[in-house]
Structure formats: C-alpha cells, structure tokens
Design goal:
Blueprint (H helix, E strand, L loop, with lengths): L3 E5 L2 H18 L5 E6 L6 H11 L14 E6 L2 E7 L8 H4 L10 E6 L13 E8 L2 E8 L2 H11 L1
Parallel strand pairs: 2-5, 2-6, 4-5
Antiparallel strand pairs: 1-7, 3-4, 6-7
Helix pairs in contact: 1-2, 1-4
The chain binds adenosine-5'-diphosphate and magnesium ion.
Amino acid sequence: TTSYSLFAADENAMCRFGKTFAEAIFHTHPTQGITVYLNGELGAGKTTLSRGMIQGLGHKGNVKSPTYTLVEEYRLNEKIIYHFDLYRLSDPEELEFMGIRDYFAPNTLCLIEWAEKGQGWLPEPDLSVNIHYAENGRRIDLFPTTQAGELIIQQLKS
Ligand code: ADP
Ligand code: MG
C-alpha cells in the first residue's frame, strides 16, 4: 500500500489541504460513502482539518467542534458530511443509541475524531489521517485501509 505525507506550516495551510483532500475524496467517490479517522492529540488540528474539508466543499457557515454534540451534520448539494468527535463518549454503547450504523451510507462522508473511543462499534475507516506537531506546524500522514482509500491517495499524488 501507499501513503501520503505533507507538512502544513500553519492553520491556513491545514485548511487548504482540507479542501484538496475533500475534493480528492469526492472526485474518486462521487456516490460511495467514505469514512475517515482523524488521529492526533488534543490541539493537533483534527477539527481545523475537518473545517478545511467542510468549508472547502462549499459550506459557508461555521464549523464548530462536535465535542458536546458528538456529531455535527452538514448538507452540501446531495452530499452529507457527518463530523464526529467522540472524545466525551463515556460508553461506546451510546453509539448504538445514536443509531450509529445509519450514518455510514452512500453519498456520505464520515469524519471521526477520537475514533478509538468507539472501538468495536464503528466501521473500519477507508483512510486514517495522523497529525503530529512538527516545529511550529503539523505533519500530516495519510494511510489507506481500503481500496477506496488507496484510490484517494493516488488522486492526491497525481
Ligand atoms: P484538535 O481538533 O486536534 O483538538 P484543533 O483543530 O481544535 O485541534 O486545534 C488546533 C490548533 O492548532 C488551533 O489553534 C489551530 O489554529 C492550530 N493549528 C491547526 N493547524 C495548524 C498547523 N498546520 N500549524 C500550526 N498550527 C495549527
Ligand atoms: Mg477537535
């Protein structure tokens, strides 16, 4: 398998990559549902990258962290983006009560922060994004885990 890494020097660069990444996802998968895990410590930039993706796809309003709501929904044309933050999930069984399975559907992009809190109750991702502090910016590493994720990486490289 192949992976993709880049350095984002600041918040703007992070958002710009978010737009490129989201466009690569929808260009390669116009209807298939895609799941992305966003990994990295508190303050790494998971929400910033999500905002870059969501606004990059044309959302004009704010993108707030779903820390307290667990999930925020964005409808853009015929697409739905679900942005999860499971940091405050105390019991992964709560996901069952949320009807978690229904979120993973065609025409849907699921972005998940703190997916490890829902371990065993979430589908495997198509792609994982790992964000690390690097000097004053961030290093971003993308690892595909499905054929779909692989295709997205290839698109980013082309
Ligand atoms: P997380 O969701 O991972 O907890 P946030 O996105 O909420 O992190 O916060 C990240 C913080 O780091 C914000 O203050 C943001 O301005 C900053 N930031 C985001 N991306 C970068 C970057 N590439 N370089 C430097 N600072 C960044
Ligand atoms: Mg966050």
